[in-house]
Design brief:
Layout: H1 2-20, E1 25-30, H2 32-35, H3 38-53, E2 57-62, H4 65-74, E3 81-82, E4 85-86, H5 90-114, E5 119-122, E6 130-137, E7 140-151, H6 153-161, E8 165-168, E9 171-174, E10 179-182, H7 184-194, E11 199-204, E12 222-224, H8 225-233, H9 241-253, E13 258-263, H10 269-275, E14 282-285
Parallel strand pairs: 1-2, 1-11, 2-8, 5-8, 6-9, 7-10, 11-13, 12-14
Antiparallel strand pairs: 3-4, 6-7, 9-10, 13-14
Helix pairs in contact: 3-5, 4-5, 7-9, 8-9
């Protein structure tokens, strides 16, 4: 009986959050560490399906850099990077499309279906969802590398109203008709901004922003945007966490209410972060916003 009462308490704790976020977009960025572990990905996407079932509008954005590099090497090509951006010629772009859209997006849709959800792949190849402009890095031509310039919010809205969960690969269509490979973190931030998302969640291989990198006990549960920016400038936030925080700050400036960074490997971390009072990761708030 006590166990049943405790379960009821959990549901009651979640109720105000379910009411608050009903029919609000929440963008969830899946990183490579999630997609390399099928069990973790299945658990995360079960949480996503739950979110949709209680009335939220989740949008899943994913990358796939490590798998693209592996496929390139299998085909006899060596990946090249400039300032952390993959140089993308025509052959690399073809491999990226196959990995991101034909493999990973399809796998995510499959996992959502197994969890009782209904996913739909959206990108710039098979739909008009993502538009891009060509990106240069310090004057270097990176080939078919772009930045998201426009997102068709109406497509996401119609999908969500219809009970579908958008699954977005960062392949976008340029005004010149070419396809462009886009950094998934920055794509997630721009998508969240353009569709008016309530939250942007990054699933990471660490619990969140750490005051002492490497020490999980130094987790910072709540940060204001200015404080998070200072941590980047001081080098406390660095490595793979830096692009997530910087993309999150960009989204906050564009009107997204809250950024969350949570550990993908922690079971039900997504639900615990969004539907409980304490959360389990780091939330970054815009200046002046309520927690």
């Amino acid at each position: 009986m006590q166990s049943a009462i405790e379960k009821a308490g959990v549901l009651l704790e979640a109720l105000p959050y379910i009411q608050r976020f009903r029919e609000r977009f929440v963008v969830i960025k899946l990183g490579g560490s999630v997609m390399d572990d099928r069990e973790t990905m299945a658990a995360v996407l079960t949480d996503v399906a739950f979110m949709e079932q209680v009335g939220m509008w989740p949008v899943v954005v994913h990358g796939g850099g490590p798998r693209i590099s592996a496929r390139m090497k299998e085909a006899g090509f060596e990946p090249t990077f400039v300032d952390g951006r993959r140089v993308t010629d025509a052959v690399t772009l073809e491999i990226a499309q196959k990995v991101l859209i034909d493999e990973i997006s399809a796998e995510i849709v499959e996992h959502l279906a197994a969890a009782g959800g209904h996913g739909i792949a959206l990108n710039g190849r098979g739909s008009d969802f993502l538009h891009a402009t060509k990106r240069l890095a310090g004057g270097h031509d990176l080939g078919f590398v772009g930045e998201v310039s426009r997102v068709e919010r109406e497509i996401a809205s119609r999908a969500s109203h219809g009970g579908l969960i958008p699954v977005v690969a960062p392949i976008a269509r340029g005004e010149d008709g070419n396809l462009y490979n886009v950094n998934a973190d920055s794509a997630a931030a721009r998508i969240a901004s353009e569709i008016g998302a309530e939250k942007l969640v990054f699933l990471s291989n660490v619990p969140g922003v750490l005051e002492r990198p490497g020490d999980d006990g130094s987790l910072l549960s709540t940060l204001r945007a200015e404080a998070a920016g200072e941590l980047v400038q001081r080098g406390v936030v660095a490595g793979g966490m830096q692009p997530k925080v910087e993309a999150g700050l960009e989204a906050l400036r564009a009107g997204v209410h809250t950024i969350h960074i949570v550990a993908a490997a922690l079971r039900h971390a997504l639900l615990l972060e969004i539907f409980t009072d304490t959360g389990v990761g780091t939330q970054i708030l815009a200046e002046g916003a309520d927690a």
